[in-house]
């Protein structure tokens, strides 16, 4: 049976069913006001009692090229994977950042204090654009990168801005903190900061004078609100203790401080012996230009070396019987690894600045200078000193400068 005969039989079966026009309207899409594949065969589908032109019907039933493309478009639209995690106003936020030309503005942005200051008003616009989708952004730190990528921001901007640290900062920027409006600590800090730098009642934009005031303000908050830790010993400048190299700010135990003190005393006693020997021998036993140093080794014991490079004079003098010598030898025996010629570390007592905050809901992190910046800005917003859209540029600025 040929194809035309099969289609002919199908056509008769179709006419026997004879669906109503309403059913056809629901099942077949319209294109430019005409039903696809139906109006095109109007007059060819046989009415009751009419003859059928089989060739015309076959040609009419086969889809035209335009109809094929329409079907493909409909199917493609149905098969597109929808991102159900996006907020309803996601596309509107994209349109807004593009309207301000923010992707181009931040193309070569490097987050230096100068660039943040110069582009503060653009950062304000960015914050206003992101505010409607802030809940979605905070739900997953990867959402920031997702939004910026789909908005057309440069890869360099996304790479810098969507780090874990910045995402934590952005989370705080878009979080409204519930702070008592009459918090004495924050009001006291405002007064202290204002003593040094004058501040207007309200700031709508960023400028250098406000930044200087803000730095003083945050520093005052940390100073007032912080309970200092107990006194502690730390390395003031790098050097050795018992032969071990230590770096600046390394913590020291009480025992290490006592050992360092003993070693410093041993070196001071050694210098005293050297100075006395030099005064007695210089110009008599040794050349007047000779230089003197002291040292100790196991087979020679404590000795003083005199040398004069021009004449080639060099001699070592063993020292014994000096009243300070026994204390030096005791120090060397008590402190394994210690050598009299070591460059010893310096130590100083400090009060650990990373203690707890007086108020339980204001805890400090490892970095006291940064820990309060977003809370401080939130309080200034509540007090009406700055507008909310200044929180992002100011938080970034404080972060870049501390």
Describe this structure in a few short sentences.
The protein has 402 residues and is mostly helical.
Structure, explained:
The chain has a 3-stranded antiparallel beta sheet. It has a 3-stranded antiparallel beta sheet with strand order 7-8-9, with helices on one face. It has helices at 3-17, 21-27, 54-61, 65-79, 90-99, 102-105, 113-118, 120-130, 134-139, 142-151, 155-161, 164-173, 184-196, 208-225, 254-281, 325-334, 368-371, 373-382, 391-401; strands spanning 30-31, 34-35, 231-237, 239-241, 244-246, 251-252, 291-297, 301-308, 313-318, 346-351. The chain has 19 helices and 10 strands. It has 402 residues and is mostly helical. The chain is elongated and about 115 Å long. The model is unreliable at 6-28 and 34-41 (pLDDT under 50). β7 and β8 form a beta hairpin. α5 packs antiparallel against α8 (120-130), α8 crosses α19 and α18 (373-382) runs antiparallel to α19.
Choose one word for the global shape. elongated
Number of helices: 19
Largest sheet: 3 strands, antiparallel
Radius of gyration: 42 Å
Number of strands: 10
Multimer state? single chain
**Approximate helicity band:** 40-55%
Into which percentage range does the β-strand content fall? Answer: 5-15%
Low-confidence stretches: 6-28, 34-41
How confident is the prediction overall: mean pLDDT? 77
The SS-based structural class is mainly alpha
SSE sequence, one letter per element: HHEEHHHHHHHHHHHHEEEEHEEEHEHHH
